Amino acid sequence: MQLGAQSWGVHRQELVNQVLNPLLEQINQRVNELLSERGLNQDAIAKICWSGGTLPELQPFFQHWLAQKFPQAQILTLAPDPNTSLVARGLATLPQYPKLLNRLRHQYSDYFLLSELVQSFPERHVTLEQMLKILELRGINPRASLWRIFAILEGYLPPGLIPDDAAAPWFTQQSQQNLEYQALRAAALFTQEQEQSYRPNPKQGKRLRQYLSLVTTKTQQNWADPLTLPWDENFSDSRESSEHPSEL
Known about the structure:
The chain contains ten helices and eight strands. Strand 6 (190-194) and strand 7 (197-200) form a beta hairpin. The chain is 43% helix and 11% strand. By secondary structure, it is α/β, with parallel strands linked by helices. The model is unreliable at 233-248 (pLDDT under 50). It has two domains: 45-101 and 231-248, no CATH class; 105-215, no CATH class. The protein has helices spanning 12-38, 59-69, 86-93, 103-107, 110-120, 128-137, 146-153, 173-176, 179-186, 202-215; strands at 2-3, 6-7, 45-50, 74-77, 126-127, 190-194, 197-200, 246-247.
């Protein structure tokens, strides 16, 4: 690889040891988690579809592992389609397989939870348990998102709310000095007084509500409602029959 006046090279063994093997360990761990969640044995996997055009020359490295991991599976290499993608097609057909989706997990986005907290938090200190009960009275199931609610109270802000250091190169100097961004970074929304006991910052809460309203002025997106997942959970496609081997 030529970078200006410098020439860079990578030995295959270095690539395998420092990049591919660690990546393979992560993939293997995630695959094991998925199999465990579904209660499946790796021998039950009948078909594996390989897709994507990233570094196709590395495909043999991963296919060797797949063949060992799933000895009963047929490995298919899917030709790329310039008009669509597997991700888009998968999302489009997801309503046919409602059991694949964790409705409770995906119903409440981080932005929705953040908006609900700043809208409903009393102007006094409350415990985490008290706040969960307040959210329940607003028709929300907070137990499904307990750790995300806890993270927001501890200072977590959803990605993309305000530009972070990673996004800085994409913004002009003037944009980075935007007064709204600086004001939102200036103070926390909630202050922890005791363990799992929090007091809101009314000024920051008002500022955030105004900001959320501003960024959705010309969009159909709003933070007032959770995500709508209307399809029937009881709907089942015949292809989900347990009589057929599973596919990965």
